[in-house]
Amino acid sequence: MTMSDPTLRRPALRSSNPEMVPKALLWGMLALAMASLAIVTFAVLTGRPPAAVPQPAAVVQEKWIVLEGRSAQSVIVRNTDGSVLLDLPHGGFITVIQSGIATERRKYGVDPLLPVRIVEYANGRLVAEDPETGWSAELYAFGGDNKAAFERLLATR
Fold first, then answer.
1. 3-class DSSP state for residue 106?
2. From 33, 38, 134, 149, which residue has the greatest number of CB atoms within 10 Å?
């Protein structure tokens, strides 16, 4: 056989099947999107109260801190007076929260070194709140180890 042999076939660059995604699947995806839109519209028009909203509770303790990101893994935690509370070269979850706050503050053009509030509520919730942008994170929802990192931060003087 030679390269000019007509029995050699080259692989097709395009599928000969014009229907790559079955029409039934496309209709199913459209139905799912429309059903979701209908459910949300119904909830808004009937005034249904939001679900899965944390219950109000008394504040057990709170701390205002400044999270200063140094790199993708490093963060310095400062008191509001500027004194260093913790210097974490491998900040772990605290760095993740700092990055989230920094990203949100960049969107709004807010100084990244303004204080944030860490709040522990009587019902067990632990929350990081950014009063400048309205951003918040329910820290207890990320697992026990991650919650413990901020609990230790609250205990640090």
1. helix
2. 149
- Please count the other Cβ atoms lying within 10 Å of the Cβ belonging to residue 119: 19
d(CA 125, CA 134): 17
pLDDT for the residue 12:
64
**What are the tokens at 37?**
């839109």
Does residue 126 contact residue 150 with C-beta atoms inside 8 Å?
yes
Mean pLDDT along residues 69-74: 84
- pLDDT for 72 equals 79
What's the pTM value of the predicted model, to 2 decimals? 0.68
Tokens 């429309």 correspond to 34
Angle of CA points 98, 102, 104, to nearest 5°? 120
Sign of CA dihedral 91, 94, 96, 98: negative
- Residue 55's pLDDT is 85
Tell me the C-alpha distance between 50 and 43, whole Å: 9
Helix 144-155 and helix 93-108: axis angle, to 10°?
Answer: 80
As a whole number of angstroms, the distance between CA 58 and CA 121 comes to: 6
Whole-number Cα distances in Å, 153 to 20, 59, 62, 77, 143: 53, 16, 11, 9, 16
